[in-house]
Amino acid sequence: MVRLKKIIIGILSVLILLNLSIVGGIWYLRSKGNENIRSQNQTNREGYYVTYQGKEYKYNDDMINILLVGIDKRGNIEEEVQGIQGLADTVILVSLDTTNNTLYMTAIPRDTMTEIRQTDTEGNFVQTTKDKLTLQYGYGKDAQESNELMVTTVSNLMRNLPIQRYCTINMDAIPILNDTIGGVDVTALETVQTSTGTVYFTEGENVHLTGDEARKYIQVRDVSQIGSAMGRLNRQKQYINAFYSQAIQAVKQDLGLPLGLYNALQPYMVTNLTLEDVTYLGTEMLNMNFNPDQLTQIPGEAVYDENYKGGRTVFNVDEDALQKWIMDTYYIEAGTDQEQQ
Questions:
Q1: What is the pLDDT of residue 10?
Q2: Which end of the chain is more exposed for a tag (fewer CB within 10 A), N or C?
């Protein structure tokens, strides 16, 4: 009996030590991730000071911006080459205000007309032209360069707003993300069907999305219908909101979940987020306040432009409204008490 007790105590001690080492490892990674992202804020100063309506403003150093991009490709993302990298179907700017513990998500429509950088097959810069944002991703000679082009273009669109990290996933990543948190519940905002008439979801239908259903809900659209990309964007925003709520609960139950996802998504993801960054951001999000009102879209209007490639839907940005929103969200008036805090 005494020997049995010693064995049990020994096993429990080992389990406790393993648990402490895991927790300690997570918090070490968290600390390093915080340090890495903050250090970039100190070295990259472009866009940190701006003048608006006669006053000088400073970028809020407590804001962390991550560009999330979803591309319309499947398979191993690193096997893609210049010219067939795919289109940026989903573009979301995720912003964490680590002082006020507030999370913002800003959708940027794929059809947004903006200045994009064109390159040749060797990756050399050719010219800058105004075109749809979705096309910018395809100009990279590889997936990393495509991401860097997207970051530059979105930053320029957002008045040189600092973007510290990026993460791009392809369509094969969606079922993995979705099922890791147990699936996502949505009420279909519209009937989702292809141009050939195949119907996947019916408007008003309550659905628990699992596996490839999640990809279909946020990707499929009837390309023969004018403005179908905007309807899809609304579904994507709805899905992200539902996913986030479910994911937070899952991470609270398993702090190691972000690390597991990070590893599982490697074949379908390109990112400059490190393991340390993921640990830091994952634990930060547990304390973030987020509601559907903070999942917004850049101001502007989707219109049918008969002069664009024979007639297409484009999204024209409201430049004045965008400038005001950027200043209100990301900047602090220089010289004020708020800046000194």
A1: 37
A2: N
Q: Which residue intervals of the chain are DSSP H helices?
A: 2-43, 143-157, 173-180, 212-219, 228-253, 257-264, 275-285, 319-330, 337-340
Tally: H helices and E strands in the chain: 9, 17
The single residue listed with the structure tokens 């060797």 is 122
Question: Sheet of 295-297: strands edge to edge?
Answer: 269-271, 165-169, 63-71, 88-97, 102-107, 295-297
Place of tokens 């993995």: 176
The CA-based angle 271-274-101, given to 5 degrees, is 95
Q: Which of 69, 61, 28, 19 is nearest to 280 (CA)?
A: 28
d(CA 35, CA 76): 31
Distance CA(310)–CA(228), nearest Å, equals: 17
The candidate with the shortest Cα–Cα distance to 164, out of 70, 259, 67, is: 67
3-class secondary structure, 90: strand
* 242/249 Cα distance (integer angstroms): 11
Helix (H, G, I), strand (E, B) or coil at 110: coil
Question: Does residue 87 sit in helix, strand or coil?
Answer: coil
Q: How confident is the model at residue 264 (pLDDT cuts 50, 70, 90)?
A: confident
Tokens matching residue 338: 């708020």
Contact between 82 and 140 under an 8 Å Cβ cutoff? The reply is yes
Check if the beta carbon of residue 231 is closer than 8 Å to that of residue 203: no
Residues in Cβ contact with 331 at an 8 Å cutoff, skipping those fewer than 6 apart: 50, 52, 57, 58, 59, 60
Q: Can you read off the two tokens belonging to residue 40?
A: 């970039």
Whether the CB-CB separation of 110 and 88 falls below 8 Å is answered with yes
- How far is Cα 197 from Cα 223, in angstroms, rounded to an integer? 11
Any alpha helices (H) in 62-172, and if so which ranges?
143-157
How far does the chain reach from its first CA to its final CA, in angstroms?
Answer: 62
Mean pLDDT, the chain, as a whole number? 81
This prediction's pTM: 0.81
- Taking the C-alpha atoms of residue 276 and residue 83, their distance in angstroms, rounded to an integer, is 33
Looking at the predicted structure, is the pLDDT value of residue 6 above 90?
A: no
